[in-house]
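Q: Here's a chain of 578 amino acids. Please give me its 3D structure as tokens.
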Amino acid sequence: MSKLLYIRLALFLPEMVWASLGASWVARGVQCDRTIVNGIIATVIVSWIIIASTVFTIIIVFDPLGGKMAPYSSAGPSHLDSHESSQLLNGLKTAAASVWETRIKLLCCCIGKDDHTRVAFSSTAELFSTYFSDTDLVPSDIAAGLTLLHQQQDSIRNNRELEEVVSPSPGSPQETELDAELENCHHYMQFAAAAYGWPLYIYRNPFTGLCRIGGDCCRSRTAEYDLVGGDQLNCHFGSILQTTGLQYRDFIHISFHDKVYELPFLVALDHRKESVVVAVRGTMSLQDILTDLSAESETLDLECEVQDCSAHKGISQAARYLYRRLINDGILSQAFSIAPEYRLVIVGHSLGAGAAALLAIMLRSSHPEVRCYAFSPPRGLLSKSLYEYSKNFTVSLVLGKDVIPRLSVTNLEDLKKRILRVIAHCNEPKYKILLHGCWYELFGGDPNNFPTELDGGDHRDLAQPLLGEQSLLTQRSPRYSFSSDSPLESPSKYPPLYPPGRIIHLEEEGTSGRFSCYTAQYTAKWSHESEFSKILIGPKMLTDHMPDILMRALDSVVSDRATCVSCPAHGGAHVDTM
């Protein structure tokens, strides 16, 4: 394969010369038949697109270390007895982090170069270099592994004997509390969605949205903006009014200032629930993605009796920014001067949910009655101690197989281990795996009808394993056991982190109909954080995270539970897995 790549690289030079000659010929405007000229112009354009794509791919994907990290990082401590070997490994780690930092800077070249951005670049590069340091897989290997893993998970779920637990009867304290919290989630999700501004509103209302907020986009409302405060709002303010149903005078502050570690937010008076609502926007820009990927743990200075106060670095930095704005700028003081009897409620979705949960922890000493509703929060957020502490005032809502509430560095390491194991125990051709996987994802099928050797024999007995000679299959690392499902130890820089608060899980009943007219039905239940300790592969693992999908599911669940008071169990019978 390497010889073919070098031959292809050699042919790259005459392609560039040919494309340059074609561009020069077109520029001179040679008189020929119009059809021929159009065909040559199209050929030249396509050639330059291919050349540009190839150059960009080489810059982003090419590893100048040539996979040298894998043998050293997988060899174990015995390989690093000598001082020279240790220095070599440290040098390779530094070089790998530098390569990733260069890639990230190239991809995010348009977002500025302040101190926070430089720190985020370094943190993200460190994360990627650590995660990929002991693997040498190509994208098609990963795609094949995810395909096999999805079928394996479906097969295990279908064949597992569930231990049935009697659901609480209607009217029990647990069910009554669940109903109340679901109604609160349904109400406050409107504020979390409003924090996204006009893009989400137009996405949810593609035909009527622009007409509804068009007047606010074009009309100058200087006096109203002065009352609200914050940045120039333009169309955002109109969409916020439409989403929340409030009046402009109910808003204390709205900010769409967006930088690394600095998130947009709004503060409003909710007279229906008698609360001061702080809503934090989720991920919607490259700056937000860098905040997400700053995944190291850092210790928080909190006024609470919790021993291990560590949390996700990027999100805790964002929460500190929000705390400074709310307290130092007097925004909360202004809100409570208008409505001193109201309580504080902090909400957010995705990244905003994580920042809202940490902000609630920071404000609890000065606002003991604070409540937080975190919609689809990231799993890798709080230490175990802070997770337990947050249960007193935080409720998280998770929909279906949403990947973000299951996403942490620890879970990603576990996913990498399971992908390596499943492809190491399969000897089917890669093209067959991918074709069958595409069919399975689109149209469904029996997960047991695809032959693999997951449970049979030693991987050395495979005649033609999917992983090749240069993979971890031969460079055996003590961190990976192809016959064990035991959890991996996380690097000290990335200790296990947990989601915030008590968790309500909206589970889909039955299976999705994929390309049918199937309307999903959901049941709600209280869940433990351990149920989100593994990443689930499926076609809805990304769509279940979208705020509009979550809002529709909440509408359905709240409506069903309100109308089905006489059913044996709210929202239909369901089974808890212990």
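Q: Can you summarize the key feature?
A: The radius of gyration is 27 Å.
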